[in-house]
C-alpha cells in the first residue's frame, strides 16, 4: 500500500518542476475513470502527464505532481509506484467545500445531478437549457479560483525547492492563480495546452489576459491553437514554445498480428479497425465512429469486419445503449479502465487501421501510440491532429472533417479496400513517431523552455517502470 508522508524526498541536486494537473479536484478526474486515488498512485501511467515526467527525467529534471483532493485534510505525499514520481496532494481551501455544496444544490434545482456533465443534461426548453449552461459556467468559474490553496502550495513549493511551475491548461482558473503566486514567490509560471481552448465565462477574461501576458511562457503543440491565443490575447510569438507530447517510442512496438488476434478470438482474415481512450461520446466523437461503422458494414455486407473499442468512462452505459439501438455488427468492446500497456498493444496489433473521430482534443497521445504500432491513422481534424500528421499521408494518415461520419467512413473504407496502401501508411506512421515524438527529443525541448537559465546535467536513463504502463490521453 502507498503510505502517505508529509516530508519531501531528496532531489539529489536536480532542478525541480512543479506540475499542476487540470480540474478543481483530482477526485473529479478519477471519478470519470471510476478509479481511486490509490489506484492512480499505484497503477496509472500513460497520458501526456507521465510522458512529460519521463521526458524531463531523461534530461535530469525532477517533476513533482501537485494535486488537490477533498480526500485529505493536510498535505500528503505519495509515491507513484510505476515511475517513482512524488505526488503531493493538498486539501482545497475550506471555502471551496462550502462552494461545492452550494453549487450542487443550485444545479440540482435546475435538474443537473452530481457527476452529470451539462452536455448530458436534456431539457425540451432550449431557453432554460441555455440559462442553466450560463449559470453553470459562471458558478464553476468563480468556484475554480477557490480550489487551489495558494498558501499551502507556496509552502510546499519552497519545501521541494521548485524552480518553475507548470500548469495543465492556461484556459483555466488555476493558471491565473499560479501566475499570481509565481510572481509573489519569484518563480516562472508556464502552462501546457492539452485541449482547453476557451474561457468558461466572462468572469475569467480579465485574469486570463493578465496571466497570459505575465507568465513566463506557454507550451502549445498545435499551430491552430498558437494562432488563436496570439490573435485573441495579443501575446508575443516568442512566449509560445511549440513542443509535442512525448511517447516512449521504444516501449511501443507492434506485436505479431496473428498471435494478437488469436488471443482476442479474432479470425486471421478479418478486417479490423480499432479505437482506444475514454468513453466520452461528444468530445471523442464516438457517435460519429458508430455512424461511420454502420455505413462501412452496410457497404461491405459479405466481409468479416471488426471494430475494437478499448476503454470506459462515465458515459459507458449510454454508449452501450447506442450500440444496441443501432444493431451494429462486428463490435468488440473492452469496457474497462486498462492499466496494462501490453493489453493496449495487443488490441492495436490485432488491427489494420486506427480510427480517431474526436471533436475536442489538445494534443492527443492515443493516435501516436497507434502510429508507433505501425497503424495508419484516419482522424478527424481536432486540435493537434494536423500537427501529428503534418505531412498528411506522408506522415502516415488521412485527415477528415470533424463531425462528418460519411467522410470518416469513406477514408476508413479506402484503407480497408487497399491493404497494401494501408500497410505503407502504417510504416510511414511509425517513422514519423520515431523522428518527432521520442522522450529524448521532447525532454531537451521542455528543459530549454522551462529552465532556460539552468545548466543541463548529464543525461539520465529512462524511468524504470515497476508496473505495466497505461495508455491513452485520459487526463
Automatic annotation (TrEMBL):
<dbReference type="Pfam" id="PF13692">
    <property type="entry name" value="Glyco_trans_1_4"/>
</dbReference>
<protein>
    <submittedName>
        <fullName>Glycosyltransferase family 4 protein</fullName>
    </submittedName>
</protein>
Amino acid at each position: 500500500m502507498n503510505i502517505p508522508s508529509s516530508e519531501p524526498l531528496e532531489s539529489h541536486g536536480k532542478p525541480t518542476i512543479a506540475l499542476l494537473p487540470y480540474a478543481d479536484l483530482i477526485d473529479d478526474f478519477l471519478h470519470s475513470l471510476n478509479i481511486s486515488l490509490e489506484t492512480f498512485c499505484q497503477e496509472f501511467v500513460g497520458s501526456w502527464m507521465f510522458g512529460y515526467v519521463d521526458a524531463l527525467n531523461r534530461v535530469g529534471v525532477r517533476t513533482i505532481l501537485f494535486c488537490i483532493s477533498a480526500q485529505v485534510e493536510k498535505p500528503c505525499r505519495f509515491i507513484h509506484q510505476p515511475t517513482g514520481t512524488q505526488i503531493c496532494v493538498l486539501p482545497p481551501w475550506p471555502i471551496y467545500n462550502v462552494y461545492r455544496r452550494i453549487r450542487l444544490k443550485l444545479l440540482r434545482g435546475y435538474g443537473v445531478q452530481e457527476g452529470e456533465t451539462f452536455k448530458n443534461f436534456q431539457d425540451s426548453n432550449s431557453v432554460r437549457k441555455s440559462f442553466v449552461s450560463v449559470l453553470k459556467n459562471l458558478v464553476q468559474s468563480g468556484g475554480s479560483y477557490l480550489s487551489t490553496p495558494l498558501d499551502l502550495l507556496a509552502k510546499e513549493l519552497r519545501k521541494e525547492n521548485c524552480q518553475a511551475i507548470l500548469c495543465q491548461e492556461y484556459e483555466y482558473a488555476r493558471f491565473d492563480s499560479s501566475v499570481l503566486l509565481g510572481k509573489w514567490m519569484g518563480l516562472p509560471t508556464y502552462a501546457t495546452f492539452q485541449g482547453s481552448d476557451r474561457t468558461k465565462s466572462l468572469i475569467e477574461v480579465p485574469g486570463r489576459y493578465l496571466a497570459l501576458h505575465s507568465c513566463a511562457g506557454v507550451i502549445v503543440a498545435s499551430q491552430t491553437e498558437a494562432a488563436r491565443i496570439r490573435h485573441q490575447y495579443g501575446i508575443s510569438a516568442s512566449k509560445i514554445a511549440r513542443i509535442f507530447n512525448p511517447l516512449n517510442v521504444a516501449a511501443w512496438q507492434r506485436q505479431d498480428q496473428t498471435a494478437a488476434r488469436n488471443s482476442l478470438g479474432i479470425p486471421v482474415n478479418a478486417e479490423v479497425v480499432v479505437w482506444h481512450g475514454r468513453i466520452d461520446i461528444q468530445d471523442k466523437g464516438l457517435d460519429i465512429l458508430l455512424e461511420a461503422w454502420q455505413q462501412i458494414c452496410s457497404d461491405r455486407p459479405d466481409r468479416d469486419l471488426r471494430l475494437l473499442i478499448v476503454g470506459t468512462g462515465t458515459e459507458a452505459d449510454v454508449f452501450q445503449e447506442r450500440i444496441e439501438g443501432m444493431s451494429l455488427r462486428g463490435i468488440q468492446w473492452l469496457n474497462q479502465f486498462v492499466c496494462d500497456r501490453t493489453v493496449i498493444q495487443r488490441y492495436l496489433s490485432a488491427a489494420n487501421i486506427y480510427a480517431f473521430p474526436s471533436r475536442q482534443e489538445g494534443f492527443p497521445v492515443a493516435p501516436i501510440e497507434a502510429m508507433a504500432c505501425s497503424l495508419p491513422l484516419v482522424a478527424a481534424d481536432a486540435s493537434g491532429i494536423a500537427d501529428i500528421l503534418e505531412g498528411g499521408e506522408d506522415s502516415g494518415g488521412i485527415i477528415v472533417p470533424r463531425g462528418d461520419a460519411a467522410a470518416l467512413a469513406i477514408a476508413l473504407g479506402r484503407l480497408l479496400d487497399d491493404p497494401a496502401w494501408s500497410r505503407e501508411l502504417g510504416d510511414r506512421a511509425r517513422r514519423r513517431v520515431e523522428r518527432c515524438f521520442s522522450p529524448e527529443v521532447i525532454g531537451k525541448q521542455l528543459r530549454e523552455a522551462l529552465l532556460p537559465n539552468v545548466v543541463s546535467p548529464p543525461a539520465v536513463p529512462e524511468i524504470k517502470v515497476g508496473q505495466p504502463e497505461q495508455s491513452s490521453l485520459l487526463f
